[in-house]
Amino acid sequence: MRRLPTGLVFALPALIVLLMLIAYPVAYTGVLSVTDPSGAYTGLKNYQDVLSSRLTPRAFVNTLWWVGGSIVFQVSLGTAAAILLNQEFPGRGVVRAVSVIPWVVPGIVAATTWAWMFHTEFGIINYMLAGPGLISEPVGWLTNPDTVMPAMIAINVWKLFPFVSIMVLAGLQSIPKDLYEAARVDGATFWDETRYITLPQVRPVLMAVTLLLVIWALNHVTTIYAITKGGPANLTLITPIQIFRLGFESFQFNQAAALSVMFFLVAMVIVALYIRFLASGGETAR
Amino acid sequence: MRVSLPGRLALYASAGLLMAVCLFPFLWMVVSSVKELRELYTIPPTWVPRNPTLSNYATVLFSSNIPRYFLNSLVISLGATALSLALAIFASYGFARFSFRGKAAAQSFVLVGQLLPTAAIIVPLFVTLRWLDLVSTYLGLILVYMIITLPLSVWMLTSYFRAIPVELEEAAIIDGASRMGVLFRITLPLSLPGLVAVTIYAFVTTWNEFIFALCFATDSSVKTLPIGLAEFTTEFNTDWGAVMAASVIMTLPVALLFLSMQRLFIGGLMAGATKG
Amino acid sequence: MTKNQRLASRLAIGASLLALCASAVAAGEITWWTPNFNEARARELVAQFQEANPEITVNLEITTTNGLPERILTTLQSGAAPDLIDVQHPWVNGYAQNNLVVPLDDVLEDREDYNSAALDYVTWNDQLWGIPYRVEALAILMNRGHFEGAGLDPDSPPQTWDELLAAAQTLTEAGHSGFAITGGGEVGNTVFRSLPFIWMNGGDIISEDGKTAVVNSPEAVEAVKFWTDMYVAHGVSPTSTLENDGTANRRLFIADQVSMYQSGQFDIASIQEENPDIQIGVMMTPHPEGKDTAAILGGWSWVVPAAAENPEDAKTLIRFLAQSDNMGFFTDTFPARTSAMDLPRFDDPMLQVFAQMLPYGRPLPSHPRWVQISQAYFDGIQRILIGEQDAQASMDLAAEEIQALLDQ
Predict the structure, then answer these.
(1) Is the residue at B240 inside a domain?
(2) Of A10, A208, A257, which has the smallest distance from its Cβ to B156's Cβ?
(3) pLDDT > 90: what percent of chain A?
(4) Euclidean distance between CA atoms A147 and C276, whole angstroms
(5) Which of A110, B232, C52, C287 reaches 20 to 30 Å from A118, CA-CA?
(6) Residue B269 within any structural domain of the chain
(7) Greatest Cα-to-Cα distance within chain B, rounded to the nearest angstrom
(8) What whole-number distance in Å separates Cα of residue A15 and Cα of residue C294?
């Protein structure tokens, strides 16, 4: 009897649990995407219907902006925060605990609180900017086409950069202190250390975190749905919200399934490319 | 080693800025939670309440379901976190230290759960839970949460495990330790910060999850805190004071939990590990 | 059928059968889902019902308003449903057309006593799919103090569109937003407030037979332009209009920023509680010269899911709840039965104007694609408010999209 590879044995429990939970939904969605509400096979018609909607390409472009904008700031701010929190200073534990708060606040409450703060008339943000005369008129953060998507992205960045900083901070702990000491002996400055020691060492963690942020951004519904529902005039409509609307608002389950399948395939391709080219490396045992 | 004065000022200023950014909306929430109803929506908005009141907290603690839901959330989140950790530790170790045919496929498969849009999987998951007769049970919800906690836990732990030098483990094996022994006595202790990070992630995600809980926990003996928040909204009115108070109650314990785990979140565990 | 489809459907059937066997429900036990704002009254009625019908036990399950349509849909689709659910009128047709609920023609008694528009709402294919218990219509709430301060008489409010605009402009000059419209939030907010204007002018969004999009007809565009101009051209609606729904407008009203806004009787209690200094007035929605006013009928109905385990007992409960006195007691706004309106609680003078609007209430069209149609219409309104297109161009684009939906 052939023995299973050890690595596979280790991974098996998790794989089995996931398989049990995911198999039926994947099959269900797949079947739904190629049938019509009565169950008859319709081939690719649902896909055609969805692709021909005026909203689909628009949502796709918005999604690119949303994902790109979010990732750039989440990663850069999160990493900067992690490096900051890795330094030694009094009260560091408290600052670390406080920095977790945006992530921990319930998503719906964070969204509505920010919407309230951004409100043109009730909002504390306009109030605080108008006081010292930084703005002459209230800004319509959520009503102006130029500011509404950046506002959504800002909320998403605020919510998730602590996640990045915690994950990177954990990674920073495994950098041997001897490396830093050796560098200081050689006369390196803080910025040199950061560039040549810190960042390269956390590269694997950063890569993993970035991939997850991309996946989450691609799947995100809560913040935008709670505040603008994809509006105004579909300016903030992203693909996951379009899927949600098709499924739960319009009862168009077959089309929602078709869109989900396409979305899923695109995401799988990104993940596969990522794993092949970027996440190789690390040491393995036999 | 002493950091220069301008360096230290910059450090404190940055730390202050970080705290301000993180706390600003939360502070607004806390202030709102002690305001009376009529003060919540004034124009212009006020930072300091004219008649601060604890009535919102009284509502939340004594006349709502929040205390019961707090308990439910605690059980479910702790359970889901424990189960994720158990499954993920083994899977990540397998991915980090071994190579086998189909490993890339298996790793991709693990991420699949994260990619499925919620709207697409809710109905089939509900059917699955009914089949297992686990609707409205702690175990049912814990199981379903594996879909959202496992992929990331495995993914992140794999990279944390990889960061530990293989020589340490190989040295132990040469000395006669078993694989499991190596895992528990060397790898895990050295990856403690990573374990803490993943624990916090799993806990926070399940603590705040709404839509699965709403659809799968139909009995108030199992309902969770996010549902409790939603209960403050009636058809034309949301008791915002109570929502803010409840949010503060939901957020602070987790932040305090993280504060208490600071001791585990330290570096230098491998100092000198690879020296001669 | 492909192999996969057979497997999937077998899995589904298997799951349902197993579920059916696993949960043997005692005959005489029903589960009723009702929203949290009905809770206290529901409990009382359930107690009375169980006294009169000791062989039936009612499990009351209180639902939240957030996420309610999604939760109901999930449960109806998964084959595991309660026996009785409270839903809003517009949702009923979607359920009926997807075979998710059972017809209730045998449950209705005293058909003539019911608000006919409400019954139309839940009728499809000549069958009745829900029993309405609550109806309401929007009117306009006004701040009497603002009126007097601007030199207007709150006891003779504007009756026509021209008068409305003039009053709004006078009030705005006096320092408040004269007439607030909605531009954000749920689609329903804006549809409920703007569509009646279209109806009043003789237009509609889709034709009676449901085959043509008519939202870009001259009558409809004129009405849309009149309504959106409140924000776009005249500035009598607040600058935050695009982020405001009905509730936000209520808050602005409470904060003394708005003089008139469209709303229902449900807002009155909140306003009185949060700002007792405001003297509230109510007026009927103004109409174009020489025509009648109009409103959309809102409200709630009872439905029995197709997957209910005990539909017969559920129907018995409905018959009890639908009795005139019980319905009058249960409803938050107005009952769907005219005889129930005789109850003393409806004598409140504040409610008079709202009661006067009821006869002008019409149901929303019952097209299967109505949700997407109203979304396309709402997108059009937002395009106008945001300045992307003018009224005609925006409605032309909306008509194109709606026509595509009608042709599917």
Answers:
(1) yes
(2) A208
(3) 20
(4) 37
(5) B232
(6) no
(7) 73
(8) 60
- Furthest-apart CA atoms within chain A: distance in Å: 80
Is the pTM for the entire model greater than 0.80?
yes
Of B43, B115, B179, the CB nearest to A268: B115
Angstrom distance (rounded) from CA C248 to CA C184: 9
C243 and A CB contact within 8 Å: yes
**Domain edge (last residue) among B53, B71, B93:** B53
In C, minimum Cα distance to B122 occurs at: C74
Does A174 sit within 8 Å of B12, measured CB to CB? no
Closest Cα of chain C to A93: distance in Å? 37
Q: Enter the tokens of residue B163.
A: 């960061």
pLDDT tens across C316-331, in order?
Answer: 999 999 999 999 999 9
Predicted confidence (pLDDT) per residue in A103-159, tens digit = 888 888 888 889 889 998 888 888 888 888 888 888 889 989 999 999 999 999 999
CATH number at residue B68: 1.10.3720.10
Q: Domain check: are B137 and B97 in the same one?
A: yes
CA A211 to mean position of chain CA atoms: 8
Q: Does the structure show a pLDDT above 90 at A67?
A: yes
Q: What's the pLDDT score for residue C24?
A: 41
Q: Which residue of B has its CA nearest to C272?
A: B38
Q: Are both C27-136+298-362 and C139-296+369-407 of the same fold?
A: yes
Q: Distance from C381 to chain A by nearest Cα, in Å?
A: 8
The whole-number pLDDT of residue B267 equals 57
- Report if residue B271 sits inside a domain: no
Residue B255 has pLDDT above 60, yes or no: yes
Task: Quickly list H helices, A119-251.
Answer: 124-130, 145-172, 177-185, 190-193, 199-201, 203-219, 222-227, 239-244
Residues of A in contact with B274 (CB under 8 A): 176
Q: Which of B175-189, C280-294, C334-348 has the lowest mean pLDDT?
A: B175-189
> Per the CB < 8 Å rule, is A86 touching B91?
no
C26: confidence class by pLDDT, cuts 50, 70, 90: low
Same domain, B64 and B194: yes
Q: Which two tokens stand for residue C86?
A: 């409270």
CA distance C75 to chain B (A): 8
Q: How far is A145 from chain B (nearest CA, A)?
A: 24
Q: Are residues B171 and B44 in the same domain?
A: no
Asked if residue C8 has pLDDT above 50, the reply is no
| B172, part of any domain | yes
Q: Which residues, in sequence order, are CB contacts of C88 under 8 Å at separation 6+?
A: C298, C299, C300, C301
B47 and B58 co-located in one domain = no
Going from the C-alpha of B126 to that of each of B118, B130, B144, B166, C12, the distances in angstroms are 12, 6, 10, 43, 11
Please state the rounded mean pLDDT for residues B152-166.
86
Q: Are residue B250 and residue B142 in the same domain, yes or no?
A: yes
Q: Are B184 and B220 in a shared domain?
A: yes
CATH homologous superfamily, domain C27-136+298-362? Periplasmic binding protein-like II (3.40.190.10)
pLDDT at B265 over 70: no
Q: Cβ of B276 under 8 Å from any chain A Cβ?
A: no
**Does residue B276 register a pLDDT over 60?**
no
Question: What is the rounded average pLDDT of the residues C203-219?
Answer: 92
State how many domains chain B has.
Answer: 2
CB count within 10 Å of CB B189 equals 11
Question: C243 and A119 in contact by Cβ < 8 A?
Answer: yes
- Considering the domain architecture, whether residues B103 and B26 belong to the same structural domain is answered as no
- Which CATH number is C139-296+369-407's, of 3.40.190.10, 3.30.1360.40, 2.40.50.100, 3.30.930.10? 3.40.190.10
**How does residue A286 score in pLDDT terms, banded at 50, 70 and 90?**
very low
**A72 or C186, greater pLDDT:** A72
Query: Which residue among B155, B162, B251 sits closest to A282, beta carbon to beta carbon?
Result: B162
Q: So where are chain C's domains?
A: 27-136+298-362, 139-296+369-407
Check the CA dihedral B232-B235-B239-B245 and report its sign: positive
From B28, B53, B78, the end of a domain falls on B53
Which of B112, B214, B224 to probe by mutation at the A interface, max A CB count within 10 Å? B112
Cβ contact, residue pair C372, A142, below 8 Å = no
C232 to chain A, any CB pair closer than 8 A? The answer is no
Residue located via tokens 């019980």: C326
Q: Does C75 score more than 70 pLDDT? A: yes
Residue B223: is its pLDDT beyond 50?
yes
| B2 and B81 belong to one structural domain | no
